[in-house]
Amino acid sequence: MTRAQHMPVSSLLAESECIIRSLGSDDKTAQRLAQMGILPGTHLRIIRVAPLGGTIEVDDGQGQSFALRQEEVAAMTCEPVVIPLVSKLVTEGQIYMIRDLRGGKNFQQRMADVGLHKGELIQIREAGVKPMQLLLVDTNKQVSLGEGEARKIIVEVIRHDSTKKA
C-alpha cells in the first residue's frame, strides 16, 4: 500500500481502521452520512461486516457505533491505517507495526518465541503465499506465519518516511 492510497470502505475487513477521505458523489447519501457525523477526516473502525455484506457496523472513535447500509459504505472512500495481516491490502515491501496480537496464551507465547510483539516493525516479504513470509525490521530476522496465525495479527500501516530514526 502506498502513501495516501484511497479505496472503498467496503474493501476493508473487520478490525480495520481508516480515515474517510470522500463521502462520494451522491448528495443524498453524503448528506445522510454528514448528519451521522461522518465527514472527510473521520476515523472509523470496522467492528463487523454482515455475512452477506448488507451492512457494516462501525465505531467513530468518539463512542458512537452504528450500522451503515451497503450504498453508504460503497459511496465512501478512505485511507486504511490499521488492517488485519490477512487483508488483501497487505503488500510486499511495505512496513507495518504490529498493533495487536489477538490470540490466547499459547498464541501469545508462540509469537513471543519468534520475536513478534506489539509495536514490532515488520516488512512483508511475500504476500499471498502460504506460509506468509515476514522480516522483523529491527533484528533482520525472517519469520514464517500460517494463515491462522496471521489472521490474529492486526497491523498499522507505517509510512516509509516515518520509520527513519533521528
How is this structure best described in words?
With 166 residues, the chain is α+β, with helices and mostly antiparallel strands. It has 2 domains: 7-81, Ferrous iron transport protein A (FeoA) (SH3 type barrels); 85-160, SH3 type barrels (Roll), CATH 2.30.30.90. Helices cover 18% and strands 37% of the residues. The protein has 4 helices and 11 strands. It is elongated and about 50 Å long.
What are the key terms here?
37% strand; disordered C terminus; SH3 type barrels; 18% helix; 166 residues; eleven-stranded antiparallel sheet; 11 strands; alpha+beta; 4 helices; 2 domains
Question: Can you lay out the helices and strands and say which pair or pack?
Answer:
Blueprint: E1 7-8, E2 17-22, H1 27-35, E3 43-49, E4 55-59, E5 65-69, H2 70-75, E6 77-84, E7 95-101, H3 105-114, E8 121-126, E9 132-136, E10 141-145, H4 147-151, E11 153-157
Antiparallel strand pairs: 1-6, 2-3, 2-6, 3-4, 4-5, 6-11, 7-8, 7-11, 8-9, 9-10
Could you give a short description of this structure?
Helix content is 18%, strand content 37%.
Proportion of beta-strand residues? 35-45%
Any idea of the CATH class of the largest domain? Mainly Beta
First CA to last CA: what distance? 24 Å
What's the helix count?
4
Shape category = elongated
What is the helix fraction of residues, given as a range? Answer: 10-25%
Number of strands: 11
CATH superfamily of the largest domain, by name, is Ferrous iron transport protein A (FeoA)
Poorly predicted regions are 161-166
Largest sheet report: 11 strands, antiparallel
Order of helices and strands: EEHEEEHEEHEEEHE
CATH architecture of the largest domain: Roll
CATH topology of the largest domain: SH3 type barrels
Q: What class do helices, strands and sheet pairing give?
A: alpha+beta
- What is Rg? 17 Å
| Rounded mean pLDDT score | 86
What is the count of distinct domains?
A: 2
